[in-house]
Design brief:
The chain is an alpha/beta fold. About 40% of the residues lie in helices and about 15% in strands. The chain has 2 domains: about 130 residues, Alpha-Beta Complex (Aspartate Aminotransferase, domain 1), CATH 3.90.1150.10; about 260 residues, 3-Layer(aba) Sandwich (Aspartate Aminotransferase, domain 2). β7, α7 and β8 form a beta-alpha-beta unit. The chain is globular, with a radius of gyration of 22 Å. Pyridoxal-5'-phosphate (PLP) binds next to α4.
């Protein structure tokens, strides 16, 4: 493995080489300050390899897919379907037919809630989620609760943000039909003990939906090994483009689900009276899809595979621990979530006592440092922590120890400035 000897920390990745693949990282912000991009949990940056594949599609192959007999349409179809196969391989899905392209995690979870939920859940059936979910794994279930009368229960979080598994075992009873959990909290960075959740769900005869929006970019994901039923993620958090994501589901579930959207491409026949559905996955992909997005998603999976997910995880654990240790040394900084980087991804939520996170974010931006502030679409976590918002720095494979130093220096300036 290559190492970067120019840094005081020995990385398992050649970070400088990786950074050269991301032109945006050479940008300057606010009067020539080099960009320090620490908002990866919201959206990651895109390497030239992904940009090139998307550009090549529009330059050389652009056409609609599936219906055409002409060369461009056949080429576009092959690129789109080969992206689906790459994504299936990346997540070790048993077959690419089980991989449905969606616009992202939000649409994927909504598809399960509405297409599977309306079909299989009835009044009184229990769906268990957690207090640490992103809104996109809360609101669709609340909508379904109000429509169908399901019982929606939450596994609470403990003070360090980890899930209360004792409580979970009481909650996941035999009338539980689905347990839907995030694999990694976007607000705190905690990594969920998925196997413990899956065990409880299996014992109760419930299905498991895993929200992989935060885990897929950073942890090796083997869908078959996880032994889950549904998996959702977004390409834009894993070096791919926006507007494209994945819903993987076991074929036995997809077969029983009704399509959510009707239109072109998802039908076999249409008459004035009724319609019949195309095979899966087309049945769930009505209309012209995001072809370039799918190709970019496939290219992003290739890029991550080439770098190696284990290498990425090791790098992120090092840099996150380094950041936690440095942040802890700043008086008035409170870090949320576990302090051990083995228990979390590269997301650090923190506050500075007496200074609003929004002010922290604005001052950092004037230093070229991009972090996120707010409730991170996880308002139940903010309520549990009893804070209105947090500041959040989130790392990816291209971030460096030097950038963490810049963050902590800038935070000291913020404290001096606001007093
Ligand atoms: C854990 C988690 N789930 C779901 C989502 C929603 O993802 P998207 O906006 O790409 O649909 C996010 C986005 O931040 C997330 O972090």
């Amino acid at each position: 493995m290559a190492t970067n000897k120019s840094q005081s920390m020995t990385y398992s990745l050649d970070i400088e080489k990786i950074r050269r693949d991301f032109p945006i990282l050479r940008r300057e912000i606010s009067d020539g300050k080099p960009l320090v991009y620490l908002d990866n949990a919201a959206t990651s940056q895109t390497p030239v390899q992904v940009i090139a594949d998307i550009t090549r599609f529009y330059r050389d192959h652009n056409a609609n897919i599936h219906r055409g007999v002409h060369t461009l349409s056949i080429e576009a179809t092959e690129l789109h379907e080969s992206a689906r196969r790459k994504i299936a391989r990346f997540f070790n899905a048993p077959t690419s037919d089980e991989c449905i392209f969606t616009s992202g995690t939000t649409e994927s979870i909504n598809l399960v809630a509405h297409a599977w939920g309306r079909q299989h859940l009835k009044k009184g059936d229990r769906v268990v989620i957690t207090e640490i979910e992103h809104h996109s794994n809360i609101v669709p279930w609340q909508i379904l609760r109000d429509e169908v009368g399901i019982e929606l229960k939450y596994i609470p979080m403990l003070s360090d943000g980890t899930l209360d598994m004792d409580y979970a075992s009481d909650l996941i009873t035999t009338n539980t039909k689905l347990v839907a959990v995030t694999a990694m909290s976007n607000a705190l960075g905690n990594i969920t003990e998925i196997s413990a959740v899956v065990d409880l769900a299996k014992k109760a005869g419930a299905l498991v939906l895993l929200d992989g929006a935060q885990s897929a970019p950073h942890l090796k994901t083997d869908i078959q090994q996880l032994d889950i039923d549904f998996f959702a993620c977004s390409a834009h958090k894993m070096l791919g483009p926006t507007g494209i994501g994945l819903l993987w589901a076991k074929m036995e579930h997809l077969t029983t689900m009704k399509p959510l959207m009707g239109g072109g491409d998802m039908i076999l026949t249409v008459s004035m009276e009724n319609s019949t559905w195309a095979d899966i996955p087309a049945k769930f992909e009505a209309g012209t899809p995001n072809i370039a997005g799918a190709i970019g998603f496939g290219a992003a999976c290739d890029y991550l595979t080439n770098v190696g997910m284990e290498n990425i995880r090791n790098h992120e654990m090092q840099i996150t621990q380094y950041a936690i240790d440095k942040l802890q040394r700043i008086e008035r900084v409170r870090i949320f979530g576990p302090l051990d980087s083995k228990k979390r991804g590269g997301v650090i939520s923190f506050n500075i006592e007496g200074i609003h996170p929004h002010d922290v974010g604005q001052v950092l931006d004037s230093d070229g440092i991009a972090i996120r502030t707010g409730h991170h679409c996880a308002q139940p976590i903010m309520s549990a922590l009893n804070v209105p918002a947090t500041a959040r720095a989130s790392f990816y494979l291209y971030n460096t120890e030097k950038e963490v130093d810049k963050l902590t220096e800038a935070l000291n300036t913020v404290i001096e400035y606001f007093g």
